[in-house]
Amino acid sequence: MRFHSLIILFLFAHLSAVTVAVAAAWPESELLATMSHERDVKSPKVIKIAKFAINEENKRSKTKLKLVRILRCTENVYTIDNSFSLELLAKHGTRTTKKYLAHLFETKNYWFRPATDEFELESFELAQ
What we know:
single chain; alpha+beta; Nuclear Transport Factor 2, Chain: A; 5 strands; 36% strand; Cystatin_dom; Cystatin domain-containing protein; signal; thiol protease inhibitor; cysteine-type endopeptidase inhibitor activity
């Protein structure tokens, strides 16, 4: 019985090490999207993501953007992460409303890669 427990423990440790090595070495550019779809812009998750993007951009660029409306949200489901592309209307103070594009990653809390935030803002730019 003890011998079987040691074998199982060894196999688990070996598979865990292989999983960590593969996840660390796998370039994100090679992660293929398995599914891409439009999300409902009124869903609580999309609203949360949009507010997060605005707040992060305000921290980064020391601006005071305010979310006016979410125009579109596309979710790409990858092997390891999910990404979201948002089209937002936001305004800076009393100035005119402008269209912005935001790209975020949803950070999943894996045992080998603990997440600090639920989302990570990849880019935020003025739409052309």
